[in-house]
């Protein structure tokens, strides 16, 4: 591929609209997420971040618009094709969402048992491989309650990548965490990109965390992406609603 030829985005959202009754949540979203990059969708509560993410994995159908994932428009797909496309995604949920009654090994291996024909020995090896990638070893027999918040997040990521997805989605990964654990999770996201070469989409309202992990930040306000770019560019973007959102963080001297 020549330098002039640019690879198509891994995810491309084009003129996306979604309303629930009189509540107009998305009002013309345009967003490209490059392959191998980390894009943070930043916005306040109720800005439509989660609704946008649900469209990316086909859990919601838009009123209008296009969602292209790895070259395929998923909007007109039936359930069978959507299931195939969703196999390209791994999901790290807000609270890690581990099964409390299962060990770490059982949590991480769950998707392999559901979606592969691997032997127990092969499953064990794959679980250990993914746990090692996220910096965890010799914890397979521990339960989630025995782990710190940061360790639970890392187990959640190991579970999300166990099927070798192309895309990893993070839903508010630092919500409710103390500053030390937040920093731990930020490092996890940065390392995952470097080690796994996956495309990452992070839904967040945490400005400091977003600016640390993102290649691109897209600011969602009143149903539109009103500003986007590298974090350093966004700091100086004059859009008044973005600046209002950032000013409290800047005032703290971050």
**CATH class bucket of the domain at 8-88 and 205-210 and 217-254:** Alpha Beta
Task: Kindly report the name of the CATH homologous superfamily of the domain at 8-88 and 205-210 and 217-254.
Answer: P-loop containing nucleotide triphosphate hydrolases
Which sequence of SSEs, written as H and E, runs from N to C? EEEHEEHEHHHEHEHEEHH
Radius of gyration: 19 Å
Task: Please tell me about this protein's structure.
Helix 3 packs parallel to helix 5, helix 4 packs across helix 5 (149-161) and helix 6 packs parallel to helix 7 (207-213). The strands form two sheets. The chain has a six-stranded mixed sheet, sandwiched between helices. It has a four-stranded antiparallel sheet with strand order 2-1-4-5, covered by helices on one side. 36% of the residues are buried. The chain is built from nine helices and ten strands. The N and C termini lie far apart (41 Å). With 254 residues, it is an alpha/beta fold. It has a domain at 8-88 and 205-210 and 217-254: Rossmann fold (3-Layer(aba) Sandwich). Strand 1 (11-20) and strand 2 form a beta hairpin. The longest helix has 18 residues, at 179-196.
Please name the defining characteristics of this protein:
alpha/beta, 254 residues, globular, single chain, four-stranded antiparallel β-sheet, Rossmann fold, six-stranded mixed β-sheet
SSE layout:
Blueprint: E1 11-20, E2 23-33, E3 38-42, H1 49-56, E4 64-69, E5 72-73, H2 79-86, E6 89-92, H3 104-115, H4 120-133, H5 149-161, E7 167-171, H6 179-196, E8 199-204, H7 207-213, E9 216-221, E10 224-229, H8 231-235, H9 240-251
Parallel strand pairs: 3-8, 3-9, 6-7, 7-8
Antiparallel strand pairs: 1-2, 1-4, 4-5, 9-10
Helix pairs in contact: 3-4, 3-5, 4-5, 5-6, 6-7
């Amino acid at each position: 591929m020549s330098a002039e030829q640019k690879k198509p985005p891994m995810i491309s959202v084009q003129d996306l609209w979604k309303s629930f009754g009189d509540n107009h949540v998305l009002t013309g979203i345009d967003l490209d997420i490059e392959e191998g990059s980390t894009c943070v969708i930043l916005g306040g509560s109720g800005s439509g971040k989660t609704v946008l993410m649900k469209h990316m994995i086909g859990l919601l159908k838009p009123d209008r618009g296009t969602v292209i994932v790895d070259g395929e428009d998923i909007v007109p797909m039936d359930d069978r094709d959507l299931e195939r496309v969703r196999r390209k995604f791994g999901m790290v949920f807000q609270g890690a969402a581990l099964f409390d009654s299962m060990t770490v090994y059982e949590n991480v291996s769950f998707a392999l048992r559901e979606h592969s024909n691997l032997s127990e020995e092969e499953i064990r090896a794959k679980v250990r491989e993914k746990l090692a990638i996220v910096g965890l070893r010799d914890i397979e027999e521990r339960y989630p309650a025995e782990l710190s918040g940061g360790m639970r997040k890392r187990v959640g990521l190991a579970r999300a990548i166990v099927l070798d997805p192309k895309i990893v989605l993070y839903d508010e990964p630092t919500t409710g965490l103390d500053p030390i654990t937040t920093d731990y999770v930020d490092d996890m996201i940065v390392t995952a990109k470097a080690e796994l070469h996956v495309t990452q989409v992070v839904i967040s309202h945490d400005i400091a965390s977003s600016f640390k992990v993102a290649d691109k930040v897209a600011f969602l306000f009143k149903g539109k992406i009103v500003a986007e770019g590298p974090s350093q560019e966004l700091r100086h973007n004059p859009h008044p609603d973005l600046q209002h959102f950032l000013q409290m963080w800047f005032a703290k001297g971050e």
